[in-house]
Amino acid sequence: MDPLPNPAPLASKLRNTLVRYHGIGDGEWRVAKKTKDATVWRKPSEEFSGYLYKAQGVVEDVTNKVVDHIRPGPYRLDWDSLMTSMDIMETFEENCCVMRYTTAGQLWNIIAPREFVDFSYTTSYEDGLLTCGISLDYGEVRPNFVRGFNHPCGWFCVPLKDSPGHSLLTGYIQTELRGMLPQSAVDTAMSSTLANFYSDLKKALKM
Question: Which biological process annotations from GO are given for this protein (predicted)?
Fold first, then answer.
């Protein structure tokens, strides 16, 4: 188990990585799934042998409230159907923490429940916010879970210029689920999970 990293350089590197992803040209992405709530694209990841996914959709609410529902905190467990538990293990500053969370089994339990330990950081970005994270090798792996690994991931949330009560939410996700899994099952699950994330989030914001 690694010791906890110094949060400031890790947060800075993570933010820079996400901003770089955000600048990748449209031509490098391939559409993986499209729903009324979101479009999901993918491209080969630079970090591991799977894909970097990009998801984007418009959400009817102000930026701060949207991000409060996504980042570690009391809201997330209430509405995210994939997340089954979440504990804040360490808090560095108000916007920076280490969290451990578990996810439900997927695809009729072909993908068994997973556990992740992530460093999470929320910061300003243009007129909105960026909340981002990366997994750490920290804490004991609990029985009955496979420990997954999130390579740099994050959500950019900015107000729509012509409609400030709406936000454009763009996510970048690259999750290594680990364990013995067919890659096709992982790819199917990721696209569907990201599309469902938007529809679940929209329902939660209307409550």
Answer: cholesterol import; cholesterol transport involved in cholesterol storage; intracellular cholesterol transport
